[in-house]
Amino acid sequence: MNYVIIGAIGAVSAILANRGIAVFNDGLRPIMPEFLEGRMTKAELVATSFALSFGLVIGFGIPVSISASILLVHSILLGTDIIGTWAPSSKFGAVAAAVVGAVYGVGLLSGLQWVVNAFKHLPVNFFNAMGQIGAPVTLAFAAFPAIAVGNQYGAKNGLITLAISALIRTLFARFNPIALGSVKVSLSPEGMAMLAGMIVLLAYAAGERQSDTAVSTASLFGDRVGRIRKNVIYLAIIGALVGAATSLHILAGDPISLNLVSKGQISAAALAAFARGLGFVPLVGTTAIATGVYGPVGMTFIFAAALAVNNPVLGGLLGAVIIAAEVFLLGSVASFLDKFPGIKNSADSIRTAMSQLLEIALLVGGANAANAILPGLGTIIVVGLYLLNEVAGRPVVRMAVGPVTAILVGLLANILALLGLFKPPA
């Protein structure tokens, strides 16, 4: 069943990218109308899609997936963006995209298991150490709303937001679990801190009001919103598949919930996914309304819902319903964002903050993992390769350096062990 669902996700998402209905990469979405409306050639679209997504698949999606034995959604949907845009824009192309997408999805899942099994037969099994890559992400992700506030409203307001998030985390860490009558509820301190930060960010953004002369986004891009609504059935299908896969714990929407699911903290993962979804409303909403191209996971609330019910049938049903509801509410979302331009403008701040935080957290996690594998030398290699990557003009995206170098250190540890130059701990 796992392979069937992941294969179906690969096939459907590749078709959606091929038909210009939905793409996962937020940077590719604004480019799609250029091709769909004849201002960009197919070759230019393919080259752009590959440039935007390939490095993140190899350097970010797959290494993070390996660290927890759960597929990070980026590893499959960024790949199907490339596959879908590569295939010809015809019925044959759609079929080809579906076949290649399905094979790619199944290959990712089977390959992930193969890699995990292969680790167990190495002289130095560094799989457990790889789990340290995601640990700082779980802890640090609560700070991203404060970074977004700082980017948009200045360092002082960012510091205030960070202090509020830190206070909320401290309180929930101290008083968890919370007793509600005879029922005890355990909430993730990091998830609650991130949720509190998001509320503060939205409060700052809501303070900016629309001017009387502003043009309505809903009226300006009404035809593009209509295009998305015409394809709602296809979006509901991919929503159902992603929801089912998330409930089966074979797919995760972000590194923080992935790491929490790998530890069995499902309710905390659901809360973290919900808080992250709040941040994606302006980002996904504005790009979808302006381009007529949606995202295959929508505003990402399907991950939170699927984890909350923790049942593949209900997760699939909710996934379909939530994406369909998002599509039909796009006009209302546009009107809301028009009234609060600060929230609309926060999309760029949120995306930048998430990228900045992931770069640092994954670098720290990679260094921790490398040092656990090869004490001392591992840290030297990670820090050295990170700085050399900067000197070389960043051929590897920053957020990929930590996970990739940790894997390289693991391979080096095995080579040194075979040469008798390193004795793995008992």
TrEMBL record:
Pfam families to which the protein is assigned, alphabetical: YhfT
Segments crossing the lipid bilayer: 46-73, 94-114, 126-147, 159-179, 191-207, 232-252, 291-309, 315-337, 357-388, 400-422
Keywords: Membrane, Transmembrane, Transmembrane helix
Top-level taxon of the source organism: Bacteria
Protein's recorded name: YhfT family protein
